[in-house]
Amino acid sequence: MAGPLKIGVEDDTGADLGFVLSCLALGMITMEEFHQWIHMVIENIPGNDVPPHLIALLAVKNRANVFRPNEAVMRRIPHDPFITDDRFDAMLGLQFFMRRDRTQANDITQAEAEDALRRNPEVAERFFALFPFLMEKAA
Questions:
Q1: Were 18 and a residue from 63, 80, 103, 112 both cysteine, which residue would form a disulfide, CB within 3.0 to 4.6 Å?
Q2: Could you tell me the CA-to-CA distances from 35 to 16, 60, 62 in Å, in that order?
Q3: pTM of the model
């Protein structure tokens, strides 16, 4: 990982967590992979200063429950300004690539999503920077 991750939820410093949660919502990653990411982040936090919302997210087992309002877990879902409309479509392109076993229910065709991914290679770069353990799966 290059530098500290942006994982806050109380202010506007949660861009990386926002991106990861978007990946979870889109089905680009599984709950198991989400938890694996949290463990990776916790292992890399200096001084064991782990934000309580990360520990709380480890206890959530159902993907839908991550996005339900819950003061004990997160007051709000962090926003990632990186995700523009075109990059969102590129994320869907990566989803098609990563989750070939799943049928997609989106307002975009696979070809359109893959075109968006080609126009926005930074989406795949960011995804694999945040999920280095998924590189082998994509190869």
A1: 80
A2: 15, 9, 11
A3: 0.88
